[in-house]
Amino acid sequence: MNATPRNPATLNGRPDFEAIAAWIRPGSTVLDLGCGDGSLLAYLAEKVQVTGYGIEISDSNVLACVRNGVNVIQSDLDRGLAGFDAGSFDYVILSQTLQAMRNTEAIVQEMLRVGREGIVTFPNFGHWESRMQNLLGRMPVSDSLPYQWYDTPNIHLCTVKDFKAFCTTHAVRITDSLVLHRGRPVSILPNLLGSLAVFRFERAS
Asked: Torsions phi, psi of 104, nearest 5?
């Protein structure tokens, strides 16, 4: 396993960026799913000299990618990655988009078909603040889950434990993981005290 980054930095409010960069070999090829405005790909290109593409459905985000000099393809991830051959990329990344996918199983399998390794990040629904808000009878709202129940794009919220169990039952081997809260690594009771999870994985042999 690669060393855990010591002080994950927040870039545009995204403390997972440095964690992801620490796991990627310099000069690798990357496919960033749900890439938004292309900030992650631009960051990885600067830090570890990756090349690759982003996939994004939003018109405004596609235009932002173009302005940021990021190669982007406009497509709906829920339709899969049929346009890419197996093993086309070294890494396929799904950063804070996993919880918004309609078919989680399909997209993870597609990530491991198209890429040699996958990296996902997602808000941890098991964080104590989320649990407390549930106990008080409200849907959680926090820095990592900033939406109200009526306007959220998140349809498949999960916890750190949930994702580990998913990998076990879907022939996915976790090779690295990091749980953060406010940009800092959480090593004690991560499913309770961490608000953002970062996982690196590959197909189990």
From this structure: -60, -45
Q: d(Cα 49, Cα 68) in Å, to the nearest integer?
A: 15
102 DSSP 8-state letter: S
Run of H or E residues at 162: helix 160-169
Considering the entire predicted model, what is its pTM? Answer: 0.86
What CATH number belongs to 20-203? 3.40.50.150
| Residue reference for tokens 């749980």 | 179
Partner residues linked to 184 by β-bridges: 181
Task: Please state, as a whole number, how many other Cβ atoms lie within 10 Å of the Cβ of residue 154.
Answer: 19
Whose structure tokens read 């597609």? 110
Task: Dump pLDDT digits (tens) for 37-74.
Answer: 999 999 999 999 999 999 999 999 999 999 999 999 99
- pLDDT number for residue 199: 97
User: How many angstroms separate the CA atoms of 98 and 158, rounded?
Assistant: 9
Question: 166 Cβ partners below 8 Å, 6+ apart?
Answer: 104, 108, 158, 172
Q: Give backbone dihedrals phi and psi of 198, rounded to 5 degrees, phi first.
A: -130, 125
53 touches 65 (CB < 8 A): no
Amino acid at 13: G
Summarize pLDDT for 9-46 with one digit per residue, the tens.
334 457 789 999 999 999 999 999 999 999 999 999 99
CB contact set of 183 (below 8 Å; sequence gap of 6+): 7, 8, 9, 10, 15
